[in-house]
Amino acid sequence: MGGEANTAIVIGSDHAGWELKEAVKAHLQSKKIAVSDLSEPSLNPADDYPKYSFRVAKAVAGGTFDRGIIICGTGIGASIAANRVKGVRAALCLTEEMAVLSRKHNNANVLVLGGRLTVSEKAFSIIEAWLSTAFEGGRHEGRVRQLDKME
Fold it and tell me: Which of 38, 106, 112, 118 could make a disulfide contact with 75, Cβ separation 3.0–4.6 Å?
């Protein structure tokens, strides 16, 4: 996964993303990437996405982790919740191209996936694309600074 094999990732999910989160966590660990899971240790239908989205987003915004992954049913609610935290640029990605562009153009520091929309193998390739892509800077730097000022 593109030179970032020692990067620690913070991850979280609600009940709808729990199974995919467990598969993603195992996949990352098999690649020797440390994973800190901020979800509850077992599937609980009462676990809602805002709680885990904020936990992951705050861990990234606070500098404890450089990048995070959040998984809920569609990814929409989790991306909305995470983007309410200052310093977080959460991107819902359904394809590898979206993941690459979220990093290149937006310097996304939180990847959001939809557990009901993304099968494990697809999620793995999206994550690998996201982790192996660097921010391009240049003309995109000004846009990211504008977002930071809006917060």
Answer: 112
Half-sphere exposure for 84 (CA within 13 Å, toward CB): 11
Active site residue 105: yes
Distance CA 44, CA 92 (A): 23
Task: State pTM to two decimals.
Answer: 0.89
Can you give the length of the chain in residues? 151
Tell me: the pLDDT tens digits for 116-145?
999 999 999 999 999 999 987 766 676 667
Question: Letter for the amino acid at 52?
Answer: Y
What domains can be seen in the chain, in order of their start residue?
Answer: 9-150 (3.40.1400.10)
Annotated catalytic residue: which of 15, 27, 72, 93? Answer: 72
